[in-house]
Amino acid sequence: MIYFIKFVYSFVLPPGLFVILLLGLTVWLWRRSRRPALALLGVTLLLYLSMTPWVSNLLMGGLERQYDKPELLQGDVIVVLGGGASSGTPDIDGEGNLFGSAANRLLTAVRLYRQTGLPILFSGGQVFPDSGNEADIAKRQLIGLGVPERDIMAENRSLNTEQNAANTAAMMNSKGLSHPILVTSAFHMPRAMAFFKDNGLAPLAYPTDYTASRGSGLYPAMFTPSPGAVNNTGTALKEYLGLLAARF
Asked: Which top-rank group of organisms is this from (predicted)?
């Protein structure tokens, strides 16, 4: 019963509701002009597929499987890329919080720090007027998680991945560092690696924050619209477009 309720909700609430409304409009239009109705049906099907976990997992999985976790950790600094932050929101020891992806990256960096003792360089600035400065927030949270301030570097000016790579390379060069262990979300790793290599670095990829499960089968919920799937589909398409732009 619980799965049936979830199925019904997926078409009663957005984004599934919009699929139902468009299908209704297609039926209404079919009685008047079939060619526009067929065009609208095609658009509706594309929109529906983009809302399903099945499609979003295929797209995200194609990105997330490009780099595996390394067996040996070889490097002289742990570089973590930001992924968004809020400003003015309450935290245990101050204000401002990293968004989910950035927080997962930060936790992975702390675990790697405890394994290796390497310093952490967090890269990310204040992207929008109402967002938090990612590196400044990350530094405070790293200290709160037990990482000594002397082992933390904050690159707090970057607004996108290209600037992350360029500004991190400059900071690393000024401190005599050259072999970063790069920590970012698995879906983001291919584009991040491309930019870091373009800036003369040879990073070791350490992907984290996975979204697409591996080895899972197909079941009805994989074909029901969900807001999370829409978000993941959009994120994946952005990464593929970014990879294409980086190569040209």
From this structure: Bacteria
